[in-house]
Amino acid sequence: MKRPCIKLSTHREMIIPGVVSSPETSSGQAIWQIKTNNKHMKRYKYVIFLFTLIFSGANCFAQEISLSPLFGDGMVLQRDKPVSVFGEAPANEKITVLFRDQHKQAVSDENGKWKIELDSEVYGGPNNLTVKTKNETLEIKDVYVGEVWICSGQSNMEMPLLGNWAHVNNAEEEVANADLPNLHLFMVDRNTSFQPETEIESKGWKTCTPESCKEFSAVAYFFGRDLLENLNMPIGLIQSAWGGTVAEAWTSASTLKSIADFREKVLQIEKNPASKEELELKYKKDLAAFIQETGEADKGINGKDTIFASVDLNDADWMPMNLPGMVESTKIGSVDGSIWFRKTISISDEIANKEMTLHIAAPDDADETWFNGIKVGESTEWDVPRQYKLASNLVKPGKNVIAIRLSDYRGAGGFMGEAFHFALTSEDGFRMELAKNWKCKVGYNLKDIKTIPIEINDPNQPTVLFNAMINPLIPYSFRGVIWYQGESNAGRAKQYEVLFPAMINDWRSKWGGEDFPFIFVQLASYLKRNTEPVNDSWAELREAQRLTLKLPNTGMAVAVDIGDAKNIHPGNKQDVGKRLALWARNKVYGGNIPYCGPTYKAMLAKNSSLVVEFDHCYKGLTVSDNREVTGFAIAGKDGVYHWAKAKIDKNTIILSSDQVAEPVSVRYAWSSNPDCNLINSAKLPAGPFEAKL
């Protein structure tokens, strides 16, 4: 860490004759303004000269104590466990930390790093925390002791209470009532790094007010508010989240090297040049190679010709598919790369030769679109439906062909939204629905591409978010973690089944091996509802999440009943936060309360039926509406699933189907957006699962 020779503290005063100076704080740092007039101009120039010497390192007469933004006014220290205070100072300097009646000392190492461990304290505050060297004293005010939680993941954790893209239910009212002086918020700024960092970007701790909470995670806020109401002690929330990110970005290099799928990528990252300029040059070079390699590998491209966009192409052997939907739910399965879609339509003489608009649902991730072999548009915007204008001479009588090259770089690939997003329209009121009867085929698989460009600020590279947004938090003491992520890993469920628990163990090992509580949200419902049982990438990801509960001290909040078919960011963050808090209140704080919905326990075959037993039924199983139990499908040895008739019998469900004589497996809520209604007496939903005899 490069440091200036002196840091001006807001708690010290600097007097310079003839000059009036005043500190103004910004993000916990001191900004000094020097006021003068012509009479003192010569002296003013002399002062500026002195400041130049000081901050350039010449003739240093003092060294600063450097602390992470985690240590600032309004901070919360974890109660009832040892607390680490750490930072940097001159090498071999004696450091003293004073807090309440504790007086602790240590000596910084040869690199200036130091750490002092305070004894555990009971909750309360505010108090002051003092850090001293022989030359300096830093005073941190309004320090509380209470419960601290790290809140991490992707966009559904990052989504704020208010903002351009936020749409939390009753947001205005929630924010207006967010005057909670015992709730303290700390937001880690977005940042990436190819190497583990010790410094963190943040504006520091803020007491929760209607103004300060607006940009803070809605899920974390509702979780913290629930804890505050029930524990009645200071709560500190540390938000470290970034939308659209993959779990491997939040995992350290040492752990990813032990997973075959990531080892080579991590080794490649570690060989990257250190300077920003060299990284940018390498990225540009690799990007050019990537474009060339993908073009050569794509079956739909031959040199400069996009043969899969040709009107006369024979696509009889392509796979049929209705849109929108994800290719992972089809026979194609999990693939990143390019997937081509084609649809042939017939235009009448009356409609032909008119200007039209082609409407396409939001691609995941990017698209290039042709009409009758002519490219009419392309975009890399994610989750945005497309509208491409068609010139009148493009729309011909008779046969017309639409071709789309969809590029999918991570997670599930396909089209999001509703069937009505696919249409051909004109200004005179003509509309042709286009959702059904598409054909698709893989162009290239990203696994076959040798050169993958690594952009400096790309948050979806392995290790880069752990390095920049988690590692700098170590060894700050906290109680546990809440986590909401997985959407960006959909389509790679088997990999996630290994990666996610590895990430949790990774974090635990970095904090000294403590099995701290780790509570995560199972993916909420999303996309169109299937009318028949299907294989589904989101359901598979949810199953990988459920299996992670095998790790000790983990919990899962089910959200399959509170999603949004049309939006990957559902607005009901209140229930998500509440369900996370129920786990914490029961398992972490010993509250004798229901904390989860019915969970799969065991299964047995009985005649032509399956009897499925559940835990956490409390006073019994029931349904969330007035219908029969829905959401169950069973299969025989052929593996073909059919909807099952379901009957509640105490803590079990008896399943049968006229189409399955000898059932051997069961699925519940096995779809991106399942129709399911099983709950317990606490009105908490059963989570999706798959089980086999």
Protein model, in words:
There is one protein chain. It is built from 11 helices and 39 strands. The N terminus is likely disordered. The longest helix is centred in the middle third of the chain and has 22 residues. Strands 4, 6, 7, 9, 10, 11, 12, 13, 27, 28 and 29 form an 11-stranded mixed beta sheet that branches. It has a 6-stranded antiparallel beta sheet with strand order 14-26-16-22-19-20, with no helix packed on it. Strands 21-17-24-25 form a 4-stranded antiparallel beta sheet, with no helix packed on it. By secondary structure, it is α+β, with helices and mostly antiparallel strands.
Q: From the alpha-carbon coordinates, what is the Rg to the nearest angstrom?
A: 29 Å
Count of separate DSSP helical elements: 11
* Percent range of helical residues: 10-25%
Shape: globular
- Unreliable sequence segments: 1-63
The percentage of residues in β strands lies in 25-35%
**SSE class:** alpha+beta
Q: How many beta strands in the DSSP annotation?
A: 39
Mean pLDDT: 90
Span between N and C termini? 58 Å
Task: Summarize the SSE layout with pairings.
Blueprint: E1 20-26, E2 29-35, H1 41-56, E3 66-67, E4 76-78, E5 83-88, E6 94-99, E7 102-107, E8 113-118, E9 124-132, E10 137-153, H2 155-158, H3 171-176, E11 180-188, E12 202-208, H4 218-231, E13 235-241, H5 253-256, H6 260-270, H7 276-297, E14 319-321, E15 325-326, E16 337-347, E17 356-360, E18 362-364, E19 366-371, E20 374-379, E21 386-390, E22 398-408, E23 414-416, E24 423-425, E25 431-433, E26 438-445, H8 464-470, E27 480-484, H9 493-510, E28 518-521, H10 537-547, E29 554-557, H11 573-588, E30 599-606, E31 609-615, E32 621-623, E33 632-635, E34 641-643, E35 645-649, E36 652-656, E37 665-668, E38 678-680, E39 689-692
Parallel strand pairs: 4-10, 10-13, 10-27, 11-13, 27-28, 28-29
Antiparallel strand pairs: 1-2, 3-5, 5-8, 6-7, 6-9, 9-10, 11-12, 14-26, 15-23, 16-22, 16-26, 17-21, 17-24, 18-23, 19-20, 19-22, 24-25, 30-31, 31-36, 32-38, 33-34, 33-37, 35-36, 37-39
Helix pairs in contact: 4-11, 9-10
